[in-house]
Amino acid sequence: PTAGGRLLELRKIIDSTSHSHSDGAFIRCSLVSEQTYRGLRYVLTGRSPAVISSRDEFLGMRSNRDLANYLGVPLRTLTCFAYSGGQFYTSFPIPKKTGNAVRKIDAPCPKLKEMQRYINQALVEIYDAPDCVHGFVPARSIVTNAALHVDRPTVVKVDLKSFFPSISSSRIHGLFSSDPFSFPDEVCNTLTNLVCHNGCLP
User: Fold this and answer.
1) How far apart are CA 67 and CA 194, in angstroms?
2) Ramachandran sector of residue 146 (left: φ over 0; alpha: ψ -120 to 50; beta: rest)
3) Which of these, 43, 52, 50, lies nearest to 17 by C-alpha position?
4) H-type helices in 127-164, by residue range?
5) Cβ contacts of residue 164 below 8 Å, gap of 6+?
6) Whose CA is closest to 73, among 106, 90, 48?
7) Pairing with 184, which of 57, 69, 107, 170 sits 20 to 30 Å away (CA)?
């Protein structure tokens, strides 16, 4: 078939699958290369390649090239953000809700933030949050958390000081090197560098 015919056939496959699978699973099409398929999925669905990639694709990464392909960036771009030591964060204070204290925010630049978002989407798909966890879990929020405590005689509120900075890059590396990930060192190192800043989670 012509290129136009392949595009039309792929559109039909993607459209039919997206309507029949709520989990976002897609049928692979042997008529086009993997790179072309990933690009067309993005064009036809408006969803990023990482969002519609499978859980197994993320867990199957064995090299930095695999990671770059998963994130949809050239290998040199991945290497730059992970190892160049460039200043990819902007720091600024925001006032806390009580008192005169401020909270320091380290905000990544747009491209790094995009890659971090793709990684986060993969982790959310893999992580099976227990019922007691409501933070950063899809369909859960401070509202769903508070609902569990309505009409309770006693409610204890605890705020963990410097929660994100307390999670070191070595712990993140250990996470990626253990089950269910078990990534090789080069992937663990790169992922850790992409999601950490100054030796911890920002």
Assistant:
1) 11
2) alpha
3) 52
4) 142-147
5) 200, 201, 202
6) 48
7) 107
| Cross-strand pairs, 95 | 102
Residue for token digits 């993607």?
14
Q: Answer whether 0.85 is exceeded by the pTM.
A: no
Task: Report residue 181: phi and psi, to 5°.
Answer: -85, -60
Higher-pLDDT residue of 51 and 95 is 95
pLDDT higher than threshold 90 for residue 188: yes
- Name residue 200's beta-bridge partners: 168, 197
Q: Which residues contact 191 (CB under 8 A, 6 or more apart)?
A: 67, 119, 172, 176, 183
Long-range contacts of 124-132 (CB under 8 A, 24+ apart): 125/55, 125/58, 126/55, 126/58, 126/59, 126/180
Q: What is the pLDDT of residues 92-129, one digit of tens each?
A: 999 887 778 888 899 999 999 999 999 998 998 898 88
Cα angle value 168/174/178 (rounded, 5°):
150
pLDDT digits (tens, 9 = 90+) for 138-187: 888 989 999 999 999 999 988 888 888 999 999 999 999 999 999 999 99
- Determine the pLDDT at residue 194: 97
The Cα–Cα gap between 81 and 133 comes to 31
